[in-house]
From TrEMBL, chain A:
Subunit composition and interactions: Component of the oligosaccharyltransferase (OST) complex.
Protein localization: Endoplasmic reticulum membrane
Source organism of the structure: Carpinus fangiana
Function statement: Subunit of the oligosaccharyl transferase (OST) complex that catalyzes the initial transfer of a defined glycan (Glc(3)Man(9)GlcNAc(2) in eukaryotes) from the lipid carrier dolichol-pyrophosphate to an asparagine residue within an Asn-X-Ser/Thr consensus motif in nascent polypeptide chains, the first step in protein N-glycosylation. N-glycosylation occurs cotranslationally and the complex associates with the Sec61 complex at the channel-forming translocon complex that mediates protein translocation across the endoplasmic reticulum (ER). All subunits are required for a maximal enzyme activity.
Signal peptide: 1-23
One Gene Ontology cellular component: oligosaccharyltransferase complex
Membrane topology: Single-pass type I membrane protein
Predominant place of localization: endoplasmic reticulum
Pathway(s) where this gene product acts: Protein modification; protein glycosylation
Family the entry assigns: Belongs to the OST1 family.
Protein's GO biological process: protein N-linked glycosylation via asparagine
Keyword terms, alphabetized: Endoplasmic reticulum, Membrane, Signal, Transmembrane, Transmembrane helix
Name of this chain's protein: Dolichyl-diphosphooligosaccharide--protein glycosyltransferase subunit 1
Automatic annotation (TrEMBL), chain B:
Organism (species): Carpinus fangiana
Main location: endoplasmic reticulum
Protein name stated in the entry: dolichyl-diphosphooligosaccharide--protein glycotransferase
Cofactors, names only: Mn(2+); Mg(2+)
Pathway(s) it belongs to: Protein modification; protein glycosylation
Amino acid sequence: MTMGFRFDLLLFTIALLSVPVLSDLILSKVDRRIDLTSQIVRITSTLKVENEGTDLVSEVLLAFPDSQAKKLAHLVATPNEGKGKTKGSAVSLPVEVVQPNEMPPALTFYSVSLPKGLGKGDTFTLDVLAVFTHALQPFPEKISQADIQLVVFYETAHYLSPYMVKVQSLSVKLPDARIESFTKIENAKIQGSEIKYGPYENLPPFSYSPIVVHFEGNQPFAVAQELVRELEISHWGSVQVTEDYNLIHGGAQSKGEFSRLDYQARPYIRGASAVRRLVAKLPPRAHSVYYRDEIGNISTSNLWGDLKKTELVIEPRYPMFGGWRTAFTIGYGLPLQDFLFESGRKRYLNISFGSPMDEVVIDTLIVKVVLPEGSRDISVSAPFPVKQWQETKLSHLDVVGRPVIVLEKTNVVPEHNQYFQVYYKFNSLSMFREPLMLISGYFLLFVACIIYTHADLSISKSSPSYLAKLQWDEVQAAVQQVQNIISRCLTIHDKLEASLRDLSRSGDVQACKAARKAFDSLLKDLSKELKPLLAFLQSSPQAAPILPKVEDLVAKERDLQEKLMVKHSTVVDCYEKNSGRRETENRVASQQQKITALRQEVDDLFEIIDEI
Amino acid sequence: MEGSETSKGTTLRYAFGNVLSFFILVLIGVLAFSIRLFSVIKYESVIHEFDPYFNYRVTQFLTKNGIYDFWNWFDDRTWYPLGRVIGGTVYPGLTLTAGTIWWIVNSLNIPLSVETVCVFTAPIFSAFASWATYLLTKEVKGAGAGLTAAVLLAMVPSYISRSVAGSYDNEAVAIFALIFTFYLYIKTLNTGSLFYATLNAITYFYMVCSWGGYTFIINLIPMHVLLCIVTGRFSSRLYIAYCPLVILGTLLAALVPVVGFNAVMTSEHFASFLVFIIIHVVAVVYYIKGILSPKMFKVAVTFVISIGLVVCCAVLAVLVALVASSPTKGWSGRSLSLLDPTYASKYIPIIASVSEHQPPTWPSYFMDINVLAFLVPAGIIACFSPLSDASSFAVLYIVTSVYFSGVMVRLMLVLAPAACIMSGIALSGAFDVFTRSIKFQLPGVAGNSQTDAGDSSSDSVVAQNDVVKTEKSEDAVKERPSKKNRKKEKEHVEKPSVKSQIKKRLLVLPLEASVIAILLLVLLGAFYVVHSVWAAAEAYSAPSIVLTSYSHDGLHVFDDFREAYAWLSHNTEVDDKVASWWDYGYQTTAMANRTVIVDNNTWNNTHIATVGTAMSSPEKAAWEIFNSLDVKYVLVVFGGLVGYPSDDINKFLWMVRIGGGVFPHIKEPDYLRDGQYRIDSEATPTMLNCLMYKLSYYRFVETDGKAFDRVRRTEIGKKYFKLTHFEEVFTTHHWMVRIYKLKPQKNRIRGKAKKSKSKASSTTSTKRGGSKNKNPWH
């Protein structure tokens, strides 16, 4: 505070001491309007420039004290074309920093190039919009929860210019609230929430008359100390935007207790200057919006959307008092066709630069544009100077990485929300690289599986254990075949039984006999098939442990077969003789018991062999 | 007949069955994974509760600093001023698993955050666990039972409760490791292969890395070995299954820093060594029996027994001496409370104060394993027919785990897989019997099976009639698939081979009965599914750091914890110390990144007692304690405004007990009126003047004018008072978390200091209506 005053005094003396005349331009009329209703200070000056000299002049110098120039975020000059002006059509004039000779120190000069040179006696009117951040200083610097936030603003009542100013006036617009104090000099008056200075006439160059306005400013001072915006282009149809905010309340520091009770009971008295919510105006058709921080989703947000815009209202996890910090991330997807265009053989992304949030000052803004893998010939066109470099980002199965254009700018205000373009070349076929990679990866995996299951991966083909394994496999195959044959025999047995049952139902002896014959031959075939297998098993040393069981099985089966045949013959015999049912049963009963027992044994053997 | 065709058909069917069960398993995995995603869908992808936050923080450290720094990590953000050696006191299995997954995924350039990996580790591993269950049950009772058990495990509520997405806790991977270790043990037991025995030791190592519950394995397996020896089932396979596990397993376990020499020094491991000796003795006896004549053998036995007894006595004496010399008899507190359920509540309040260490109630059995509780007995019976090595293991597993679950709610988790295996066996057995009965009695099938046994035409009939387990029955009427490992199918095949009807018919139930029974079983299964889905969606998916409630105006979210932690992390100095009850320690370090005094790793009872004492002391004494600990902020959780029941006032008696356990001037009766804990006007003055009461209820009366506590459902006892040594710096939206700052020490002014001192003491003394007292600091 005191520092500020001293500095201004210094400036003032400088201004009085040095009176170099730069050119023959004079400002015949200066109107300045200062808007202090938000934390961003906007000074709109209308300058009427007149050339009194003889030389052709094509440049106008604007001067700011260094202390202000540091806070200057945005400076634009537009020609003022009278009453019927339309802001959109006005093309802004080129502005650049210059360091003219023989100028007092501690001043920064900007030179505005006029569209055409001014001859003698010509006049030209231009509007200059200067936007400052951090220009409002809280005073007192520390307040408690119940206090209101007061801020001070320093300016000069006289327009600081290297030229003579004939007529000038200044109006300072304040928020609708208490004005603590303001510097009272001549021609100063207050009208509602506006303070007016002037008119002042015929002031020499570098006139300076410091004024201080001390007023109640309860508007939230949301300052993003760092904002990283990442715009990732996917040619599958979206631009994914991720914004990492590092937010601080830049107003008066809060001191003492924070009482939730007071805040909840009288939120606009106890905690008037707290940042409660922020509004982000997202482009229309934004989708997949999220709002989170490093410990998870933040549930206090609202989203509305219509054709013109999407509005996201977010609340930080806690109301932010002076000096409190928070960090969060918002992200959303945008339809690609709204932002990506083609010109010639190049594509370009056309998207706005700054944060979508209103009235947030950004100290450092880093915009990263992540282009798809395989983009070439990248160039950027931005409407204002930015620091720029290139990085590589690896993500989602990338091989060489995606080129990332990084743009950095300090002191960003909503006025910087202008479109910038990133031009690049990209082959559409590259889109399919990653899906194809996945497909071929899976394909290779399955092929590997197939090869693994079918190929013989033993290291030594001649080792005894390997040979033994091979032999064992053969033995197993043989045993399996034996089992197969036996089970088919058993099926035939079943069928024999069935034919007997048919016989008891129909009494057709001939059919039964025919069936028997057929089965007999089948069984013979099977027993023939069995022979080589058994021979093999007997010859193989590996089969030794299993052989007795198999032989047992075969013998049992043969036994069973014989018994069945006998039974079959007996029953058929009985039918042919037309002997009584009971008699038949009596004769068969004993055989039946044996058959059942044998069958049981065969089944058991099956299980035992299976278990070996 | 068409021999080649038939065998071709068999192999085809075999392949088909394999592919089918493969797909069923894949679907089971998907089911296990997706049923656990309710928490992500209903809430968000976030780490849950308390311990997972610690694991998450450790994983973050691991991924950031690498494995070597992780082993050497001394964490100075917790247990201030003692700190904690994380690398040596943590079971690293889970962290290393998630870290490895993260590393693999990121080296494939798939940008997943550590948090995402951590959130989804548990569901992934529950899919693995259900596959492991399939393998284990298959070894015990065949593939059908395996599939059933796997599907049951995929959605058993008890396991879901510990493995929903976000529940990033040791148990999530440990249950998989547990089941898989058992599978490999059984596999080794069935095959006698040294390969599986080695794998088994490695899996056991993974289990030791993951969870303290590994002691269950190292006691259960010896018990089973002993059982096998006693019942005369000793074999070389048993030897191979057990001995490598003990040797390799113990060596590997000793590699884990947190276990270290405990693997050979504590009583939990003695059983395995004892059985190790026994199995060798038995092996030697069997060997000698083989080479000696019976007479010589008898002589040898008497000789050996007499010498052996002497040696045993000596060893036993040494053991007893060793064990007796340690104060806890060589058992850690948690293990002791397993054996003696009343141990913890008698001696260690800090263990007893955790709700999951309490014995469960009956409803919690129904809640956690639901219908499985009724199927388990049937499964046990099925295991006895016939009793094999594997099925005896399953029976032993269920019996022991039922006992342990009865001691501690937490161990219900160990019971769940056992219950699933048993129920799987029971269910698949029942379906077996019923479908077979139906098939037998369906007119078309019984007749046809005689004539068309090798034919496929009858299959379609069966397929239409059999609602459940179609593929199994299909196999059943066909010829035997002759591969070895298809025991299950084999059984079916033989049964319908009509000639053995006499024996098999005995098992056949009436058609109507079996149809109804199948319907009832399906109904039972459906009930289980409905219950599990409900449990997954409603009961167990709340992350507990975000609470929601439904009121007439829609969903209401209580996100106060994170609000407070975010405030701490952004608006306090990095090195500030935050004191809170130990429950919130892990969350504070992980979410707010601030140093805490105590946390959920309750390794130092005295330290916790110090905080407990401070919370139960009057303001000035508490301030002194906290100041001596360099504490800057005190965090309390208060549910009285919105009715959040697990707040600090409800936990307060534990603070008193734990504090009083170390500092005898804190006496529990001082806080109780006639043995009752109350905070209303009947409360004792000590209670109304303690720090916890004051910090919780500071300016509470101004919210509604009456100071009605919605949790305790009463008006509080002391309504108007001021804080002298603390100031409120933050309270969350619903007042659930309140953060106070210690006021700086006032400059000492002669004379004045004395005056204020006397006033302070009067404030903190028994006087009520503290609001009348002047604040000595102002």
